[in-house]
Amino acid sequence: MSKLKQLLDSVRSGDKAAFEVLYDDMKKPLFTIILRIVRDFALAEDILQELFIRIFLSPPESSVNPRAYMCRMARNLAIDSLRKRKQEKGLDDAEHQMWMPQDSLETKLDINNAIMELAERERMIVTLHINGGLKFREVAETMEIPLGTVLWAYKKAIGQLRKILGGVL
């Protein structure tokens, strides 16, 4: 049984310490996924908090892949938030900030700017695979698109990123 499944089983039993470990293990990849979608640091923090409240109150069943489930949940909450926010006001006011766990600020900014130049679908595939840690099959399931499309879009996105970043990748 995977570490995440064990943690979720403990959370289902009411173990708050297991929830803290789960939060520490998953906050960065889930936050990155959310932030890439909403492009607003404060809003991403709020969505992440809502996500973990939902996970604490109703952990996924042990039969599902916990990482894929949480990534899909993060993606869906972020998209729902954007839809709701778009109805309330224009998204032009959103501050475009990005967070990525990299070594230097300059590298973060370069990669962030390059990723933001990708089309939305390619950006999401790269984010779910690299930051979310999902396998391509899981990315396909999460995004509800064929595996072949995911593989093609990922290869295309990496090629674009290499071109933008001058062959650094």
Description:
The chain is mainly α. It has two domains: 1-94, RNA polymerase sigma factor, region 2, helix turn helix motif (Rna Polymerase Sigma Factor, Chain: A, Orthogonal Bundle); 101-169, Arc Repressor Mutant, subunit A (Orthogonal Bundle), CATH 1.10.10.10. Helix content is 73%, strand content 0%. The chain has helices at residues 3-12, 16-38, 41-57, 66-88, 105-116, 120-131, 136-143, 147-164. The protein is globular, with a radius of gyration of 16 Å. The protein starts with a helix and ends in a 5-residue tail after the last helix. The model is unreliable at 90-102 (pLDDT under 50).
Shape verdict:
globular
Could you describe the largest sheet, including whether it forms a barrel?
Answer: none
CATH class of the largest domain: Mainly Alpha
- What percent strand? under 5%
Radius of gyration: 16 Å
Q: Supply the CATH architecture of the largest domain.
A: Orthogonal Bundle
Low-confidence stretches: 90-102
Run of helices and strands? HHHHHHHH
Task: Fill in the CATH topology of the largest domain.
Answer: Rna Polymerase Sigma Factor, Chain: A
Task: Report, as a whole number of angstroms, the end-to-end distance.
Answer: 34 Å
Number of helices: 8
Fraction of residues in helices? over 70%
Please name the fourth-level CATH homologous superfamily of the largest domain: RNA polymerase sigma factor, region 2, helix turn helix motif
- Mean pLDDT, to the nearest integer, reads 84
Any idea how many domains? 2
